[in-house]
Model the fold of this input.
Amino acid sequence: MAQTTPRAAPVVLRLEGVEQLYDGKIRILGPLDLEVRDGEFLSLVGPSGCGKSTLLRIVAGLLRPTGGVVRLRDRPLGGVNRSAAMVFQSFALFPWLSVVENVAVGLEAQGVGIRERLKKAEKYIDLVGLSGYERAFPRELSRGMKQLVGLARALAVEPELLCMDEPFSALDVLTARTMRDLVLDLWASPAVTTKSILLVTHSIEEAVAMSDRVVVLKANPGRIAETVELKALPRPRRSDAPAVRETVDRMYALLA
Amino acid sequence: MTRRLSRSLPVDLGLVAALAVVLLASLFGGSFLRPYDAPELEPSPALLPVYLLRSLARLGVAYAAALVLALAVGHLAARSPTARRFILPTLDVLQSVPILGFFPAAVGLFIGVFGGSALGVEVAAVFLVFTCMFWNLAFGVYESLLTLPEDLQMAATQFGVRGPLRWSRLILPSVLPTLLYNSLLSWANGWYFLIASEIIAVGPARYTLPGLGSYLAQAVIAGRHDRTLLALGLLVATTVAMHLLLWSPLDTWAERFHLEETGDHPRTPRVARVLGRSRIVRGITRSLVIPLGQQALGVAGRVLDFVGRHGRAVGILVALGLPAAMAYGGYGLYGLFSGRPLAPEVLGLPLDLFSSFVRVSLGVVLSAALAVPLAHRISRSPERRATAVAVIQILASVPATAFFPLIAVVVTWGLGMNAAAVLLALSAMFWYVLFNVVGAAAAIPKDLVEVARGLGLGGAGYMRRVFVPAVAPGLVTGCVTAWGAGWNAMILCEYLETGGRVLSVRGVGATLARATYVTGDMQVVAASLASMVLLIILVNRLFWGPLYRQVAARCKMEA
Done:
């Protein structure tokens, strides 16, 4: 399937020679180069200890790499990445804030007025299907619903890049599948402006089912083993489709 | 946004200051600026409400100061490893040192600074109450910030939550439950030391501030049991009222700030479900405490961010001021000892120290022996725990003097003043152990309890294999605190004046009290204080520290 993919799609985020040393000696990650293009769904997979989460924290600007540069549309990243928003494996919701306050917290931090931020929060709560739960507190929600709040909170700041750190790992199998479909629907929906997604996962099946491109990482130190283009794989991807199964098998072989 | 905040900060501060000034001015009238003439207190019971209000104002001001400072210091210690290296040992030493012993020096300082006016004595009293409220608040803030999940902090950072918003949305909410719990302790402490801080005696000079504590102390000294009981009743009624009107609604509101997602802890209305059923409590919670709480969070966030941003300046100020103060103190000490030969009391200090040491140690052992089984009984149901915490707090805030009638009984029975002193000390020490053990017992994972039950571990087996190991870290923490409190109590309970009689036993506390209140011999004061502090720090370093590390290594619950 030799499609003429628009290779020239602008780059949202570029890592150049990024590396992370512990104590100035022990190499955890890199050096590696990576780019996320506009409108791309990119996944990072790899065994535990390959530095996936470290990499994601560097992208989000929560961790300053010991070497290399992170560029946002060619501007080097200084502090926290304001054009990215993060979804956490542990949800990381504020237990003392209601659903709507949790979703609006990023907007509040940006100084958006109360009326506008409530309107926006409502919109994204509605989009993830949590209407009616605005006044609920996180402890009253199921794990799946908590992660929906986490997703709405990230989307509500309308970031250029959505970063997700093992977002489905703490959920049961059925909930995880529903959530994956929801994320793909939102990604395709015109109501959501965020079109570039960076997903960190340890599940090859998940990466293959969702992404345009998968970067496979190796451990000790974390570095890129292989990059697999999946843009050509038709969507929606059913896990029992032969093409999908063949891709998954191929990637298992890569990781072994 | 930032501009709006920075403009509203002075307004907020100004409002708070204006409110405080109006409140204080109306309470104390013009007496501030007159030279202080140390009046005897009018003993008429009709004046008790006025005395109570004045004492409450003192405690309130001290508490507010302790709260703000504890938040700033605790946060700084949790955030900056450099600051932590200075703050933690300082707090540790200061909280285990008998604050009461330093009262005369502090009072002298404040009275001097304020030119001998009543304001100086007021400030001194507030400062004394502050010192006994501050430490556990600061430690509480520090510890709960250490356990704040990293993901939550990262999420806050990622979504740009910083400055005042970070305080009001992340830091304050996360420390609130601990802060409330420790506030109960602080207030109990404050009431306990109120007596010592409202009658301030330095040698022959005696300053009496009108207040409930001084009224109580006067009644005891005069041997008027009717007035003593009346004042005590008022004190207990006040603590109960504060529970009903303040702590209980706050506690209900703070439910949502608990971090743990499961467990029976957050769901149970503590401080007795009974109180939660009261329509008054619920009404106050809904209409007053919750809106006020939200507002307070916002204002506090702005103030604390302001304080936090100037943390470095404050740090530098302290770093410069502390050595200067120490040098000044050292010079004063040198003057005390070089000018004249040692007083006979100074030579008797080793024996004094030994007998006090025996008393305090006995107090710790007794406290632990009583607290563990009691905590086990209390912690079997969350509701019971709630009620118990309320009752304990009320009991703990009843000052040692309340037990004077009991002392009289013990003395007449012929058990002697020694037993009486240990009993009195217990009244100050026991609660720390119980509070800590109850807290640790509440944190025992439910799974563990269920596994033990499934294996048929009951009674003694459960105590030995599950309960005692699980509460051991808390028990040691409680014992360390009680140990410090015990030394403090020695000053109060080794030397008593009641109904014209003086009851005293041999001990460093008695020596210190006599030197402070009777002879005014500063050499003896300095020597006994110094030796006491030295002994306490030595035992902390050589015994409690290693013990805690061992116990923690074996018995800490892993997440």
